[in-house]
Design brief:
- This protein has nine helices and 16 strands.
- It is α+β, with helices and mostly antiparallel strands and 488 residues long.
- It has three domains: 162 residues, Beta-Lactamase, CATH 3.30.450; 87 residues, Helix Hairpins (Orthogonal Bundle), CATH 1.10.287; 172 residues, 2-Layer Sandwich (Heat Shock Protein 90), CATH 3.30.565.
- The longest helix has 49 residues.
- Helices cover 45% and strands 19% of the residues.
- α6 packs across α8 and α8 packs antiparallel against α9.
- Strands 14-15-13-12-10-16 form a six-stranded mixed sheet, covered by helices on one side. A five-stranded antiparallel sheet has the order 4-3-8-6-5. Strands 2-1-7 form a three-stranded mixed sheet.
- β12 and β13 form a beta hairpin.
Length: 488
């Protein structure tokens, strides 16, 4: 069952307040009760001292004389106090009029440390008693003569008034605690509602964002400090979503454009071929043209599928040791003749001991894309440099070519799908603009990276992939049939 933040805050605030009030009420109740008991016991002990002072020992016996005027509390008719005296051997010496109906409980402590107990009085009332043992003082005539046995004294008083006061305090604290909790609940609901107003306002602003325009940003200047990071992350999410939807719309448009051109060419070729009867050789030529268009379209679709698999992590990678030089030279062989015909100079500097630890098919795809891009966009009689080095447990391959017409601001966009530096898209149907995008995703999947740089009419790409533990060992024989324009 779901619960709102408002309900949770109100619940926990009330629960904490209830615990604090309960602890406070218990502490106050105990302090007041102990204070009242201590005051009651002091009065009770004072009465006991008065009774003990009335006991004297003579030469022959111990006697007790207490005037009603000295201790009227023992002789009143309503709720009188009680006392009883015992000799040390157990004989009752004296008692107040209220103990005629029964004896008080016998207990005693030292005169300096009397004992207090809650007792039941002879008339059935609840009371509190103090017990102490003392040696009676000698009268003036007998001096120190006479019996020296101790006398035990118990003085009791009814606690009806004390119990009533304690009950009043208990009920007062209970009602105060309950009333405070009710007020806390009511005022807390108002405070929580006002405190959560920024959250409600944020929810309203989010609800007002239209899916057609995700570029809207939520201002954070009016938000509490605790919500500023949330608003910042939300704005970042909206920005990423807007970028993703923009890329999706651009991707859809670019895909349609890239596929429409070859399909239109295929359709027009077939329509011309079917417009009238032709020779067998002409049909074969038409079919060859159509097959080339189909191959190009198939390459576009396969590249898009490969990109989707790399981005979703569905590509199964099988890392193995790969000699970087062999990989580059094998990928370069199909490009040698075209590059040589354009008078392009190629300078290849690769250490024979550089070994990658990566998936061979993915590496071949990356290197093919980088070298094909360099061979395609290098100007006639230009220059291509291919080099490699070992850096911090990785192998770095660099491909630099001249003839670049892009500006430095275009560097981050070369990895976008279907992006080309020619805004007129004059080469649509020839280059689909997916090679570098595929290379970057494959490099990321292999745990590497690709960076580009544009400066002074040159275009440079740097590929970093994890190196094998045997990078610095082993010599790979140079492959045969390498174009003579490759120099070390």
């Amino acid at each position: 069952m779901k619960s709102s933040i408002r309900a949770r805050l109100l619940f926990w605030m009330t629960a904490v307040m209830a615990i604090l009030l309960l602890v406070f009420a218990v502490v106050v109740y105990e302090v007041l009760r102990q204070s009242l008991l201590e005051g009651f016991d002091k009065v009770l002990l004072a009465s006991a001292r008065t009774v003990s002072d009335a006991v004297e020992r003579t030469e022959s016996k111990i006697q007790f004389e207490l005037d009603a005027h000295e201790a009227p509390e023992f002789y009143r008719s309503v709720d009188p106090d009680s006392f009883q005296l015992w000799l040390e051997h157990g004989e009752s010496l004296a008692g107040s009029p209220s103990v005629n109906a029964g004896n008080l409980p016998r207990f005693s402590g030292m005169s300096e440390t009397p004992i207090f107990q809650t007792v039941r009085l002879p008339d059935g009332r609840s009371g509190r008693a103090v017990g102490l043992a003392f040696t009676p003082k000698a009268d003036d005539e007998s001096g120190d003569a006479g019996p020296t046995e101790k006398v035990e004294l118990v003085v009791a008083r009814g606690t009806a008034s004390l119990d009533s006061t304690i009950r009043f305090i208990r009920w007062l604290l209970t009602l105060g605690t309950c009333g405070t909790l009710v007020l806390t609940l009511l005022l807390g609901a108002v405070a929580v509602r006002r405190g959560l107003k920024p959250l409600d306002a944020l929810a309203a602003r989010i609800a007002a964002i239209r899916r057609e325009d995700l570029s809207a940003q939520i201002p954070a200047d009016w938000m509490p400090v605790e919500m500023v990071p949330v608003v910042g992350k939300l704005n970042d999410l909206l920005r990423h979503l807007d970028d993703a939807f923009r890329r999706e719309r651009a991707f859809t448009a670019d895909t349609a454009h890239e596929l429409r051109t070859p399909l239109a060419g295929l359709r027009s070729t077939l329509e011309v071929a079917l417009s009238k009867p032709r020779k067998e050789s002409e049909y074969r030529e038409t079919l060859a043209e159509c097959l080339e268009v189909v191959h190009h379209t198939q390459r576009v679709v396969e590249t898009l599928l490969a990109l989707a698999r790399f981005e979703s992590g569905q590509t199964v990678l099988r890392p193995e040791a790969i000699h970087a030089r062999e990989l580059v030279e094998t990928a370069w062989l199909p490009l040698c003749d075209e590059v040589a015909s354009r008078g392009i100079t190629v300078d290849m500097r690769l250490h024979e001991g550089m070994i990658l630890m990566a998936d061979r098919d993915a590496c071949r795809m990356i290197v093919n894309a980088l070298l094909s891009n360099a061979a395609e966009y290098t100007d006639n009689n230009g220059r291509i440099e291919i080099s490699g080095r070992i850096a911090s447990e990785s192998v770095e391959l660099a491909v630099v070519n001249t003839g670049c017409t892009l500006s430095e601001v275009d560097a981050p966009r070369v990895f976008d799908r279907f992006w080309r530096g020619d805004p007129a898209r004059a080469d649509t149907g020839i280059h689909c603009g997916l090679g570098l995008a595929l290379a970057r995703q494959a490099a990321i999947a292999l745990g590497g990276s690709i960076d580009v740089g544009i400066a002074g009419g040159t275009f440079s790409v740097r590929l970093r992939l994890p190196a094998s533990s045997g990078t610095t060992s082993g010599v790979l024989p140079r492959p045969k049939n390498i174009s003579p324009i490759i120099h070390e």
